[in-house]
Write a structure and sequence with these properties.
Elements (H helix, E strand, L loop, with lengths): L15 E4 L10 E5 L3 H13 L3 E5 L5 H8 L3 E5 L4 H13 L8 E5 L4 H9 L4 E4 L4 H36 L1
Parallel strand pairs: 2-3, 2-4, 4-5, 5-6
Antiparallel strand pairs: 1-3
Length: 171
């Protein structure tokens, strides 16, 4: 499936393209990959597709929040190599938004020093991956972030059930 929302005459337009493998397992997660560089984004998408994930590819962040709210991804990967401050601000705003704050965010960066890692974590990133991307590390970090999300989602559902039971007992 392919989604596209862009205006050729508008250089600030956003292009959303979704790729799904032909035999996607319904239990596999939906991941949004954000990167302005076509080649690195395509390589990232290819690596994620090898693991069977549904991947939505995003070039710019013009209407990104709207697309994230619409698509409700299980994970967001953001390359902050270019426009680092814009991308860190995006990460922070997603973590401050009640509708998106539980979506794990992994930032992809060239910087692999302690200060850069701490800075990214302070902006709300759940994890970091340094370039060049190692396939095994990417797979492990994505799987780990998705496992944590599924556990947290399960706890939320359990909490709702217990709240409903308590309310029924009180009433």
């Amino acid at each position: 499936m392919i989604y596209q929302q862009s205006e050729p005459s508008n250089p600030k337009s956003t292009k959303f393209v979704a790729y799904a493998p032909s035999k996607i397992d319904s239990t596999k997660a939906k991941i949004i990959a954000i990167d302005t560089h076509n080649h690195s984004r395509m390589a990232l998408v290819d690596l994620l597709l090898l693991d069977g994930y549904q991947v939505l590819e995003v070039e710019e962040n013009f209407h990104l929040l709207t697309e994230i709210l619409t698509q409700q991804p299980d994970l967001i990967l953001i390359d902050i190599t270019m426009r680092e401050q814009d991308r860190l601000a995006l990460c922070k705003s997603l973590k401050q938004n009640e509708e998106t704050n539980r979506i794990p965010i992994i930032l992809i960066t060239l910087a692999d020093d302690r200060k850069s890692r701490l800075n990214c974590l302070e902006f709300g990133a759940d994890d970091l991956i340094a370039k060049p991307i190692d396939r095994v590390e990417l797979s492990a970090k994505v799987k780990s972030a998705l496992d944590r999300k599924r556990l947290n989602d399960g706890l939320d559902q359990t909490e709702q059930v217990l709240f409903t039971i308590a309310k029924a007992i009180e009433g």
